[in-house]
Design a protein that fits this description.
The structure is a homodimer of 146-residue chains. The first copy, chain A, has 146 residues and is mostly helical. In chain A, helix 1 runs antiparallel to helix 5, helix 2 crosses helix 4 and helix 3 packs across helix 4. The structure holds a DNA duplex (30 and 30 nucleotides). Chains A, B: Keywords: DNA-binding, Transcription, Transcription regulation. Chains A, B: It comes from Actinoplanes couchii.
DNA sequence: TGTAGATACTTGAGCAACTCAACTATTGAG
DNA sequence: CTCAATAGTTGAGTTGCTCAAGTATCTACA
């Protein structure tokens, strides 16, 4: 059995550091979103819109209620970044399609967010692959506790 | 110069993994908070209350507006977990003091949250120290971009 | 075919968590 | 003594979310 208090301390440190890194990344993302006139949720939806896809799919990706997506997409549509296109094969479904401007804004968002992330991880140098591998092990765990 | 597209891909992976790990940790924390009848913000405030401290300090720790703390502490006080004690030396200040029940609930929260975090990081084995060291490098960076 | 149950989306009510501006009470510095 | 700064509160407003209910449509099966 290993040293329990030291173990505890390590887990606390890990938790704090993960939250800190995520916080920096999110803060950067939100700042760019704001520059582009988007709320964080709208920006998050936008970067997850590649091809045309039903609204339901977006709700699944964002793992939130469908009614939430309605509001977020309303905002994107009002800004002319996205349109709802009815699916002829299933008239319940509306596909979300990026407009030209929406596509442009989405690319800008991902590019700039990536640049910020790049800057954040730059200090690691080649160890970045190592960090990824370690985090991948954590990610591979099934959701613990019901 | 290194391979730009591959670099980009790595940064995207790192970003996703950090968000995923943070998401799991937060989800676990919020679940425990809910079990204890606390909202996430209340739980976060509670774990950051050690000794008696001015409300201002808590606002700084949580890096949020002072008026936000007022509401959160109202909730904790209504649940009997915390009391406001006026500072005799500076009558503008109110110190937040944990009640016995508040202390108990706080310990429970930290203990259980730690157990969940422990479970999340368990798959790493001894590599946990390595992960911490890498994340510490990231954390050491000054906030990039103004 | 007809109908019962599932599914996609919307609407409305409501809550949590936040910010900002304005206010009161108090303190500290000149 | 006065004036700017600070601690805390209040109220208005926003965002992001959930849940319940409703409409329209689809699917399966008896």
């Amino acid at each position: 059995m290993s040293d329990a208090p030291a173990d505890d301390q390590l887990v606390v440190e890990l938790t704090d550091l993960v939250f800190l890194a995520a916080g920096r990344l999110r803060q950067g993302f939100n700042a760019i979103a704001a520059e582009l006139g988007l709320t964080p949720a709208q920006a998050l939806a936008l970067v997850n819109l590649r091809g045309p896809a039903p609204m339901r799919d977006l709700a699944d990706i964002l793992s939130c209620d469908a009614s939430n997506v309605t509001g977020i997409v309303d905002g994107l549509e009002k800004r002319g970044l996205v349109t709802r296109r009815p699916d002829p094969a299933d008239r319940r479904v509306k596909h979300l399609v990026l407009t030209t401007e929406g596509s442009r804004r989405r690319d800008q968002l991902t590019t700039e967010a990536n640049a910020r992330a790049e800057a954040l991880f730059a200090a690691l140098g080649p160890d970045r692959t190592h960090l990824r591998d370690l985090l991948a092990v954590v990610a591979a765990r099934q959701d613990p506790q019901p």
